[in-house]
Amino acid sequence: MLFSLQLCFISEKDVPATLMLDYTTKFVFTNHGKHYEKLGVSTNQGNIFELSIQYSDERVRNYIIDLFCAAYTVVAAYNHYDLFGLLATPTGDPKFSACQGDDEAYSACLLVQKCYSNQRYKNAICKYHVAHETFFLHPMDLHPVNEPIERNTVLTENIRIANVVVACYSILEELGLQIIIKKLDDGTNESSVTHDGKAWNPEVLERLKTALQTNGINPETNIMWLSRNGISRPFKHNVVSSDNPCEWNDGNGIKDFNIGITDAILELSYMRSCLASHSVGDRVLELTIYDADNAFHLARMVLLDFFKINQY
Questions:
Q1: pTM (2 decimals)?
Q2: Domain chopping of the chain, boundaries
Q3: What confidence score (pLDDT) does residue 4 get?
């Protein structure tokens, strides 16, 4: 059976006719060329593609659509579609749910294909999607041209941010890219930092770099980290430096900086362990919307690099 998602996109890429998920299930891309009369949409660049799913039963169809929604959230960096929204428009209805001017939908299908046979990978993209449902944040919300957002005034907002932090670190764990701590000969656990707390434990750092490198992620990559509105970041300031400012850093309300991906993972690990999970008491109140954005940004960057989805 074939189900149209009532969704079209425009792409200049060499989009194939199908993307196989298993022997009975696949994404189908119908090429309507540069003009799709049904929608009254034309393009001078690339072609217009209609997205459908070939499936064996409704359970499988819904499962694929749900994964597509999760993958699209990773690609777009915010929640755009949900299962019931895409099921609401019946097949054949001339009113399509959308015609995207880019090929994010195709990138999302590629991501689903790369995740489909591995439960941990599917868990990872779905955790990102659900985290955005828990705490919605659009990529433009924290653009530096906008006014700084005040600290949260209600506890449920802090708890939602804490759930985002936990989910984003869990994504790293699903991919095998978490900080791995081993037991020492005396039965105690090694630390991720040196005894004086001023540097990485070199063995732990090397282990993380190797995991990143093995999975095609450059361990020397830098990542933007937000620090605004009088709130000082990083938390692990003895180890993680903020001395590489972003170009829009004004030194006052906006003190965003660049850090290495390994330092970002260390910072997220600290937030997860000390501010978000377990019994953290008043420390959860230290979390802000900027910490949620940092967690989302790191998790998305890792997911896109891990699965080789070129969509920044």
A1: 0.93
A2: 2-117, 155-306
A3: 87
